[in-house]
Amino acid sequence: MGDATPHLEPNTTAHQDLESSKTPGNTQPSTPSNSQGDELTFSNPPKLSLVRLFWYFFYNFGLFAWGGPVAQIAMIKEQIVIKEKWITLARFQRVFAVYQILPGPEAAELCMFFGCLSNGRIGGIVAGLAFILPGFILMLVASYLYTLAGLDNIYFNASFRALQPIVAALMFKATHKIADHSVIKQATKKVDPFLVTAAVCTAINSTLRLNIFISLGLYGVIYMFIARRLWIPAGILFILQYVGYAIYVVFRGVPSPVSLALGIAKTPSLINLFVLGLVAGTLSFGGAYTAIPFVQVEAVLKGGWLPQRVFIDCIAIGNVLPAPLVIFATFVGFQGGNTDGGLARAFAGAVVITIGMFFPCFLFTIAGHSLLEKLVNNKFLASFFDGLCGAVVGVIAVITFQILRSSIHGTAQDLLTKPVELAISKAANSGTAAVLFTVSLAVLYKFTNKWVIIVLVVSGAVAGQFLFLDELAGH
């Protein structure tokens, strides 16, 4: 990573054992002298002081966390596991499997795990903070500049108008990637039709405006029955959800869009922002894309204190910065605090929602990884999490389509814009936005380099000055 990186050398015996076990095409070392159990418990981290540990994760990973979670995890694996051999590849795969079912960004959790190995629980906290800090500071600065420029700045809005369909393309690609992992049956490594059904039905439930928590919990339980071939209880639960919905509609009518929310952030007070971050962070199975729908429903639909286009802008900024994508919550907290009480409250709001968002992953990771490894191997709980992860895909898919519609056609308010000529101009630019979405999606599937997202976002910001500035300047 650079000359400033501490030189970490594992002990010679372990190093030779691991090197001798490598064969071309084999991704997990298999040492003749070590059993599989040894590989899963092998640990040889350097004992770094807290200051050196902070600098190690800050410099090597925090400053270079570009390109999203896949690039971040690959970077951590290459540096710590492949080059410096703190643990074996077999153990890394097991640890990574555990963190995939935990709430929070896996890259941050991996940094905490390795920090714990080096210097105990305090080391885990230090390593996690070191990884998150650069992105948090940059998002705080970006939030301030966004507010300083003003929502009515034509140059600012022109760039973000172009970025919105690019964000929609990023979410479409992410939904596909998440689905690739979430609907696969672990035992066979093949697509599980029941998990696909859970995703589709959860998407349908979202359009019917059933609460997200009901669908996630329900399909987790249903899949637990299916995994044990208890078809009758699974079928009864599946039917009961729609019977219950029909009864509700008859007596109470079709639920409103805000019925999907818990209503925990009707106003962006500091305590409400903290709770919003805490609940969203607890729900972020598989990373930020699971937290996005929940924050959108609470802040944009239920609370109404965050405009939809501003929410999409914060996701665009989060995709550019070297940080876990859940750092978008910092932007949401800043805007909410600014709405609630001005600039000082904005900075406080950014801090408290970020603490809430990351608290669950710190808690679960630091509290006891060994216990989590036992839990993930429990078939009873594992099947529940499998069903929940399958259902999550449906939630993300629905919110992705909503963001796509908003980014291309604009919001319903745009159609009521006065004068009428401006409303017509906004509608006419839908074609340009659609082209941006299509081109961006094609680029994302054609190129997989970690810098592609950054290039797309920067190019979109520049293109917006040519594509949308005349519309905004003319009115």
UniProtKB/TrEMBL annotation:
Any matching Pfam family: Chromate_transp
Spans annotated as Disordered: 1-40
GO CC terms in record: plasma membrane
Biased composition (Polar residues): 10-40
Subcellular location: Cell membrane
Record-stated family: Belongs to the chromate ion transporter (CHR) (TC 2.A.51) family.
Protein name per Swiss-Prot or TrEMBL: Chromate transporter
Species annotation: Elaphomyces granulatus
